Amino acid sequence: MPVGTLALQRRPPTLGVNDLDEILARLAAHGIDYEPVETYRSGVRHGVVLDPDGNSLSLAEGPTR
Fold this sequence. Notes:
Strand content: 25-35%
Distance between the termini: 46 Å
Mean pLDDT: 86
């Protein structure tokens, strides 16, 4: 990459959801794959859904109270 060129990292859009497990189960029932769910120290749970073309969508669920 030439010096001075700005490299932009592509990140999938993130949608906040209320029940990540339910959504992932419904997507899996329709043959849609997803990456393993990560849980952060803050309690936020995060998963990435993949479509057949390799596009991704990030889903995040806030910590339980």
